[in-house]
Design a protein that fits this description.
Structural class: alpha/beta
Largest sheet: 8 strands, mixed
Low-confidence stretches: 1-37, 210-226
Number of helices: 19
Radius of gyration: 28 Å
Strand content: 15-25%
Distance between the termini: 9 Å
Shape: globular
Mean pLDDT: 80
Strand order of the largest sheet: 8-9-10-3-11-12-14-13
Helix content: 40-55%
């Protein structure tokens, strides 16, 4: 931040009188074992994003700085219009250009500078004294930056959008859109599952089973024989016909484990649930589903081609990451990998011919569909198989929100940006979604940037909190520390507006005024027109960010701690 004049005022008044929530209920919220030595996966420094409009330049972000560590949940809170969503779009470089433009700063993802070469993408020329600017863009460099971001979006940084209905294509089915993201980031795993599913040997034994026992599976332990697999199918059919859902799910899980491919259990479960009236008819329908595990020579060749192509794409993404880490182009390596990908497609062009294309893609399409069903099950969608075949316009806002969450979580990202993820959901589903995010954090070490208005959600899941106002971060603190001792007057106002269980009759306070017009923001501290403790110096110079405790920083002239170092 900019250098500031000396501070002359006392620092005790607002902190002593400000109300705070009962912190005893928060003792189990933050993970006390969170080590400070965890690697920083996302480092945002002095990020500035402007929007060039006919009315003037909107300074939506003006020096945003924060860090996000592996396995940490960082909450970003503030009023509507303070720049929270613009921050998330700037990190992922999804700002619409025009009219928006990231002006300066750095976004480091695992050492890779997402904004590398930013200053060479556009040149700005003022138009006289009108306050307007003419922008000359280098579309070649902008296209190169977009290609580099493909190595990070989804698998590296994933995002749950605030308006999921606008983020989904209405002409494609739910399974098409979710499976596209799944295959893009976990395609090698899906293809390998199909190739490892014994290439139809399990299907042949199960499908040919008569009244007697079938021979054991090759290479399987004695207890995991085809007889055991057949017994699991029989248990599934009986449980499905008697509406024993827990028993049917357990049998389906056993089928997936014994068959060597998890999704076949899910497919068998929904087949048995919706199959014919008799047990024999249901069993026959379930056993037919194993036929999809038997690959033809052409299908097997196509899957091997896809696996090799995906390996080359992964290698190309690594080159892009190396470029951003070294801040130096590696055009020769990129072109070499691109030539290999094009040559691979040319040598196997017949896979795209009419009549062959649908045949060779069928195993991968079926597997991706049932993977999608499993993802939808994870976000508590009722009848996910039917929903996966449907279209976005057939779903409610809450259902589309859950589909978007499933899509974002499908790639096990390193950083998950959740922009109001539970806004359109009821309370019970909110708890399930937050628990899913918590499990993802502990399972793969995903770092979460949680953007929300709900301080109750922040208290439940966040480790640290950044309070944002009018495009700048005014306070950062561990979640328990912020609720115990909010320092900035804006933070105190936010917490004062929350009902308290221990004081049910207390009148709730509100912050007077509104978020300022960011075309002509207030000079000095942007909060001073609404601050009850404003001083003359607050109107002149922006306050520096000072350290007022362990991990607790604030940008306010009421405090006199040492200036924080970014």
């Amino acid at each position: 931040m900019a250098a500031a004049a000396p501070r002359t005022s006392s620092s005790s008044a607002p902190a002593d009188d400000s109300p705070a929530l009962d912190a005893s209920a928060l003792e189990t919220v933050a993970d006390p074992s969170r080590p400070d030595a965890d690697p920083i996966v996302l480092n945002v420094r002095e990020l500035r994003t402007y929007f060039y409009t006919y009315d003037g330049v909107v300074k939506a972000l003006d020096g945003v700085t924060f860090k996000l560590r592996k396995g940490e949940t960082l909450g970003l809170v503030g009023e509507t219009g303070c720049g929270k969503s613009v921050t998330s779009f700037s990190i992922t470089r999804l700002i619409p250009d025009p009219p928006g433009r990231i002006m300066s700063g750095s976004v480091l993802f695992r050492g890779a500078d997402v904004l590398w070469d930013l200053e060479r993408e556009a040149k700005f020329k003022p138009i006289g004294d009108t306050g307007r600017v003419k922008i000359k863009r280098s579309f070649r460099r902008i296209r190169a930056a977009t290609e580099r971001m493909s190595a990070i979006r989804g698998g590296g940084i994933s995002m749950i959008f605030q308006e999921p209905s606008q983020a989904m294509n209405p002409i494609f089915s739910i399974s098409d859109q979710v499976s596209e993201a799944l295959l893009l980031h976990r395609g090698q795993e899906v293809v390998q599952h199909l190739l490892d599913a014994d290439e139809g040997k399990v299907a042949a034994r199960v499908a040919s089973r008569g009244a007697g026992n079938a021979p054991p599976l090759e290479g399987s332990p004695p207890e995991e024989s085809a007889t055991t697999l057949d017994a699991a199918i029989d248990r599934l059919v009986v449980a499905a016909r008697t509406s024993d859902r827990p028993g049917a799910l357990a049998a389906a899980a056993d089928i997936g484990r014994l068959a060597g491919i998890r999704t076949i259990g899910t497919e068998c479960y929904y087949t048995a649930r919706d199959a014919g009236a008799t047990l024999s008819e249901s069993g026959a329908e379930v056993r037919k589903r194993f036929a999809r595990l038997k690959l033809s020579p052409l299908q097997r060749s196509y899957l091997r081609r896809e696996k090799k192509r995906m390996e080359l794409v992964t290698k190309l993404n690594q080159v892009y990451l190396d470029e951003m880490r070294a801040r130096s182009p590696r055009g020769r390596e990129r072109r070499s990998i691109g030539r290999k990908i094009r040559a691979l497609r040319w040598r196997t062009f017949y896979f795209g011919l009419w009549g062959i294309r649908s045949h060779v893609k069928k195993p991968l399409t079926n597997e991706a569909f049932w993977e999608t069903v499993q993802l939808l099950e994870g976000v508590a969608i009722a009848n996910p198989a039917r929903v996966a075949r449907g279209y976005p316009h057939e779903l409610s806002g809450g259902m589309i929100q859950r589909v978007m969450i499933a899509m974002a979580l499908s790639a096990d990202p390193d950083v998950l940006i959740a922009d109001e993820p539970t806004t359109a959901l009821d309370v019970t589903i909110q708890a399930q979604i937050l628990e899913m995010m918590r499990q993802l954090k502990h399972r793969v070490g995903t770092a979460i940037l949680l953007i929300t208005h709900d301080l109750a959600v922040i208290a439940e899941v966040a480790d640290r909190v950044c309070v944002m106002y009018a495009g700048v971060i005014v306070e950062t603190a561990p979640v328990q520390e912020l609720f115990r001792r909010p320092l900035h007057p804006y933070s105190q106002g936010l917490l004062s507006s929350i009902p308290r269980v221990d004081e049910p009759s207390k009148r709730l306070a509100s912050i007077p005024g509104a978020v300022p017009n960011l075309i002509t923001p207030p000079t000095g501290c942007r909060f001073h027109p609404r601050c009850p403790y404003a001083m003359p110096i607050c109107k002149e110079t922006r306050p520096p960010t000072t350290v007022e405790g362990e991990g607790h920083t604030v940008a306010c002239y009421l405090y006199k701690g040492p200036v924080a170092v970014n």
